[in-house]
Amino acid sequence: MKCIKQKVAVLTLSSMLFSAAPLCAWADGVPESDKDTAVVTEQTENSSFDSAVQSNETASAEDEQQPKDAEQPAEGSPSSDVSALALKNNTAKAGSEAIEVIIALDGVEKATEDDLANLLVWAERVNNQKSGFDQVELTINDEGQIIATVTSNIMGQVTIKAAKGTDLETVLQDEKALIGSVQAIFSGTATMYIGEKSFVYNDETIPLDVAPFIQNNRTLVPIRALSEACGATVVYAPSMETISISLGNDVIKMQLGAANMEKNGQTLSNDAVAQVTAEGRAVLPFRAIAEALGFNVEALENEDHSIKAVTFTNL
What we know:
This protein has 315 residues and is of the alpha+beta class. The protein folds into 2 domains: 4-12 and 77-187, Immunoglobulin-like, CATH 2.60.40.10; 189-313, Copper amine oxidase-like, N-terminal domain (Copper Amine Oxidase, Chain A, domain 1, 2-Layer Sandwich), CATH 3.30.457. 17% of the residues lie in helices and 39% in strands. It has helices at residues 42-71, 113-117, 168-171, 223-229, 286-293, and strands at 4-8, 84-87, 91-93, 98-104, 119-124, 134-140, 146-152, 156-164, 178-187, 189-193, 198-201, 204-207, 213-215, 218-222, 233-237, 242-247, 250-255, 260-263, 266-269, 275-276, 282-285, 296-301, 307-313. Strand 18 and strand 19 form a beta hairpin.
């Protein structure tokens, strides 16, 4: 069966909190006895009490049974009182794989093109002010389910949200418009080998202008190649001899020849300075760049314990 597709514009916003009013259960009050009622005999009181107890027990049994029957949804249909998002997979390789989300609409057994037209789905990064690196596409599968396919060339955690409506600014003002949200992670792994002018990022081999090398017991790796492979934007200002890296939520700034850098306005200390090679490429100790980009890093050693390669990952 041919899928119905609709491209959804990328929308990245600062994270927003949505809350739902708590449900309250109310019980009917029991009327007070008439204070002016004449005193009756103990036998009459006991008889009335027993009848009331029996009546209450019967009513409670009926009340307990009724909600259970009423709450059962029709076979093959989604829950009648809740719209929801469910992840088909919660991790994907950045740049090559997608995260898929099943979206169930309240009271809708099989979605139509009209349902897609009144649905907004977007991806958020915490405190993110940028756009363009998370893409969302909506389709309807053969079972009539709405599938949101999210792709990104940026590693890191992402929050996927869905709301009923056609204008994002409007639905953000209406708590009831939000269908739900889920969190997922775009993963990435990059391995650089000492002396080799190529490295592997998520199973893809990428060429290098300058190979990683060891100098004064420090392993130095090229900044631009690694950063751009992970989806970052790198800007070098020759007149100022400064390098700026933007990756997701983070902005890193460094000065050539300086033993520190800035990440989101905070100073980070390095054990070696950023420098430019004869090929005109900026290099930095691998642990310093890993910390700046928020990666985990592991050094792979040869038999003589010298460093053979370094691996960067965000998981």
